[in-house]
Amino acid sequence: MKLSMICQPALASNSPYRVCDENGGEIAWANAFLDAQRLRQLSLRSVRIYAYDLLHFARWFEPQHQPLPHITESTLVAYVRHQLEQQPQPTPQTVNHRLGTVRCCYRFHTGQEIPAGKVHFQHRYTKRSPLGYGRSRPAIARGLRLKEDRRVIVPLTAEEVAQFWGTFRTYRDLGLVGLMLLDGLRSCEVLALELADVQLSEGQMRVQGKGNKQRLVPLPPEISEALWNYLRLERPTTTNSPALFVSLKGRQRGQTLTAAGLRSLFRHHRVRSHVHHANPHRFRHSFGRDMVEAEMSLPARQPLMGHSQIGTTMLYVNLAPQDVWSEYARAIEKRKKASHLLQVPVLGSEHLS
After folding, report:
1. Selecting from 3.40.1010.20, 1.10.443.10, 2.60.40.1120, 3.30.390.10, what CATH number does the domain 158-316 have?
2. pLDDT in tens, 226-270
3. For 113, which DSSP code?
4. Which of 63, 136, 171, 221 is such that its CA lies 20 to 30 A from the CA of 89?
5. How far apart are CA 16 and CA 28, in angstroms?
């Protein structure tokens, strides 16, 4: 059976993404779950990710001709083995996300968790607060989950940012990248911005974050000036797109800037600037690093970066190795000035024999 995901016009309460077979017949259990997520007002981007996860699982599961409510954790173990035998092998994060989607779909249809079957991965453990204080609380690990390596993104240095920044020649690009660097916006948040979200007179902007959560972010004077010049001088007056950022030339002139267009923009400027590891997320991470160095409080950084959990803000901001060494050297020098006990005596040659 050959399955695929198609996108078709749909009502606002239904998912436009459908998992179908080669004859156009729908996979009912998958599409019912997708419709429910759209009914919950999840963003189309989130529904699309769910659809791809269910498509991957359905391609493996449907040939077994087994009803969805009959699966157990043993079924998921076999599904994980199937994924790990593929080339290229998916990352643990990808596998865990697919397992989470299958578990959500199972709960939607049955109202229960997937039973253990012949394997027992569920276990209890204690979990502390992400801030490290308070009593530990009991938690339950529900089912199989692969171990994930902690992803550490090294932010760009000030020199790399200046080198990359210097290759831009339009106010649109300066405003777009500036929002990532000076406001910490995600690439999807930048692309989702609309003209109505920009409040230049008030020096702020409304941002639609993950989970359709809105937040207000301040606009630095440099970014306000770049956006004002872009709207006044560069943005096509003939466009009817409500999006803030649109294409400036070519056949797509005046149309909403897409994710593919943003990737192409970064590829072009990586070549021109020779900063080959510059990408939107590194700019966001550089913003987090800069806020740490400016001693901005953790509760203030959390809403600014659009994190629902303060623990995410703590895990997200990591100092680069060179920053760790410079902070270590600064601390040692400060300790030396505070105490003469750390003075290393000069040894004569008689002590070296």
Report:
1. 1.10.443.10
2. 999 999 999 998 889 999 999 998 888 999 999 999 999 999 999
3. P
4. 63
5. 14
